[in-house]
């Protein structure tokens, strides 16, 4: 067989300008353009960009004197923090100057005053030093009084304030949840989603034909992002505060949700129920974390001082202080013939409780019994009709209406010596907590008709908010027809301090 003749190699040709080596639709590739053409195109682009300065201005750009387009600078997060820190330091320096003595050196006194103020504020914020507010409370003016800023059709069962106390939340027995501004009183309602949406948010189908919307408890996270509500449908409902939309339903309790509390500076949420259990959730991750057992009857109220400390009260006449990381608890038993109804932290070592016999108790972690008791703190007899029994006197049930003398709500400005209590006798009372658990001293009384089902004191200590209803929070065994269902606010006048910021 004859060999195949070898194919003659073709002579390479010089590629033309504007063509791709190897061909194939690359005639427009600028890589293969000749140098003069690329430079000419760049000059054309430069001329075009100079002529488009007016367009830049039209679209919001800024053009400086040299014709260059400028960009409007915005304040970064770091710059904002630096500016706020400088403003706060300026206020501290001004407060220190007001304290300095005339005969001292200005620089030395000012520097020492700033250090003292910063140290005191740091101790107060960390809870190692109690802020003294009670001594600064002034008598109310004649024009002062409770003013209803939000009206509800049914009795209000819960109120909650944001961390900076500029916004508030309230809920009532008809399931209405309202978000309101403290200063202006402007309010907006939260709308419940349909049953299909609730089930898609992991809620279990209702046992009856219609889901109960009655709300018994509210809690708002410290960052102001989440609002939690609980009630008769055995679910904890999580809401987005910014959009006021329902985002999650936590199921697990077998009874009504009676109380809720967020851990300070934490997304951890605690819930208490009539099923005698306490559950721990994470609002950020939308997950269940833990379940705590210890109470032998329905849990009524709770309060959280930190994500590691929780205080609960139940109908078993006990109050439990839970140490979450250690998984342990301290049990405090109510005095004889009394059932605890509400509780509130004062600081990490002391707390308050209110009882159904009209008493207010001061507790310490060092003792299993109250260190001080104010008996008959809310008698149902009006001051104008009969002389009120003295504090620490003998409580006589036959002389007072038990339903109206029950201490249904207590609140304290955490980390301070200022506290308040409410009942159904038409009064909200302010109290001063003496240091070293020495006692409770009465301050002033504010008139308010109706059952005070919830209380909250502002972080500044300058006002108090009360959730009021014609009926008690957990029943209908009493009724005050003259009361207005809603949220009422009362100013607390404080004497100005020289180092107030």
TrEMBL record:
Domain of life per record: Eukaryota
GO molecular function: RNA binding
Family: Belongs to the WD repeat RRP9 family.
UniProt-listed GO biological process terms: rRNA processing
Protein name: U3 snoRNP-associated protein-like EMB2271
Region (Disordered): 1-130
Keywords associated with the record: Nucleus, Repeat, Ribonucleoprotein, RNA-binding, rRNA processing, WD repeat
């Amino acid at each position: 067989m004859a060999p195949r003749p070898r194919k003659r190699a073709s002579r390479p040709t010089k590629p033309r300008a504007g063509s791709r080596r190897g061909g194939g639709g690359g005639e427009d590739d600028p890589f293969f353009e000749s140098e003069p053409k690329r430079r000419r195109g760049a000059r054309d682009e430069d001329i075009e960009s100079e002529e488009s300065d007016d367009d830049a201005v039209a679209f919001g750009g800024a053009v400086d004197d040299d014709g260059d387009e400028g960009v409007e600078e915005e304040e970064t997060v770091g710059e904002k923090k630096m500016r706020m820190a400088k403003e706060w330091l300026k206020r501290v320096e001004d407060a220190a100057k007001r304290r300095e003595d005339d005969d001292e050196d200005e620089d030395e006194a000012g520097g020492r005053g700033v250090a003292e103020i910063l140290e005191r504020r740091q101790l107060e914020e960390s809870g190692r030093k109690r802020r003294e507010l009670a001594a600064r409370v002034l008598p109310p003016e004649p024009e002062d009084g409770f003013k209803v800023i939000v009206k509800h059709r049914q009795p209000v069962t819960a109120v909650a304030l944001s961390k900076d106390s500029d916004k508030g939340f309230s809920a009532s027995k008809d399931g209405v949840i309202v978000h309101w501004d403290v200063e202006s009183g402007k309010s907006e309602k939260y709308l419940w989603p349909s049953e299909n949406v609730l089930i898609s948010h992991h809620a279990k189908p209702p046992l009856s034909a219609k889901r109960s919307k009655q709300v018994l408890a509210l809690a708002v996270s410290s960052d102001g992002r989440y609002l939690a509500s609980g009630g008769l449908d055995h679910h904890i409902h999580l809401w987005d505060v910014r959009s006021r939309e329902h985002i999650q339903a936590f199921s697990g309790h077998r009874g009504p949700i009676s109380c809720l509390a967020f851990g300070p500076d934490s997304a951890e949420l605690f819930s208490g129920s009539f099923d005698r259990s306490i559950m721990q959730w994470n609002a950020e991750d939308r997950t269940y974390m833990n379940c705590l057992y210890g109470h032998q009857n329905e849990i009524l109220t709770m309060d959280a001082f930190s994500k590691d400390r929780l205080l609960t009260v139940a109908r078993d006449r006990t109050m439990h202080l839970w140490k979450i990381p250690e998984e342990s608890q301290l049990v405090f038993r109510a005095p004889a013939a009394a059932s605890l109804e509400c509780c509130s932290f004062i600081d990490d070592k002391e707390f308050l409780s209110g009882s159904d016999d009209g008493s207010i108790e001061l507790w310490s972690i060092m003792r299993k019994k109250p260190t001080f008791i104010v008996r008959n703190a809310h008698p149902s007899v009006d001051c104008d009709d009969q002389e009120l029994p003295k504090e620490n006197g003998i409580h006589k049930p036959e002389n007072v209406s038990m339903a109206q003398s029950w201490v249904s709500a207590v609140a304290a400005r955490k980390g301070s010596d200022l506290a308040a209590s409410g009942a159904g006798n038409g009064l909200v009372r302010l109290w001063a907590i003496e240091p070293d658990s020495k006692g409770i001293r009465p301050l002033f009384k504010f008139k308010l008709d109706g059952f005070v089902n919830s209380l909250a004191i502002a972080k500044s200590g300058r006002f108090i908010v009360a959730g009021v209803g014609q009926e008690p929070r957990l029943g209908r065994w009493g009724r005050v027809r003259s009361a207005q269902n809603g949220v009422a606010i009362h100013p607390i006048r404080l004497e100005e301090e020289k180092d107030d910021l």
